[in-house]
Amino acid sequence: MSDVLPSCPQCSSPYTYEMGALLVCPECAHEWSAEADVVEEPQEKVIKDSVGKVLSDGDTVTIVKDLKVKGQAQSIKVGTKVRNIRLVNGTDGHDIDCKVDGFGPMQLKSSVVKKV
């Protein structure tokens, strides 16, 4: 038997089978084309601020709208500078990890900041 099917690209299961023009993995139910032997590398996500500038680790940003903080009586005001941000794959759109003076460490959405 010289026709060996490739392993699943998602879970690496060796138990793939053909279903028409597709290959199917019975363990994770992933389907892919038999002609797509070349696996594309995932593209790096580009994170932009509220005005469309590309953000990177270590940038300084300012807050563009008042942000209420749970557990705090005061909010983060417009124009507050946040230095040395770190970009992360956070949950619910929070893709900036930072430390805000007076509030401590937190995660922010890139849509509420502007690059300085």
TrEMBL record:
Superkingdom, taxonomy of origin: Bacteria
InterPro entries given in the database record: YjdM, YjdM_C, YjdM_N
Domain Protein YjdM N-terminal: 5-33
Pfam families linked: YjdM, Zn_Ribbon_YjdM
Residues covered by the Protein YjdM C-terminal domain: 47-116
Family the UniProt entry places it in: Belongs to the YjdM family.
Protein name (database record): Alkylphosphonate utilization protein
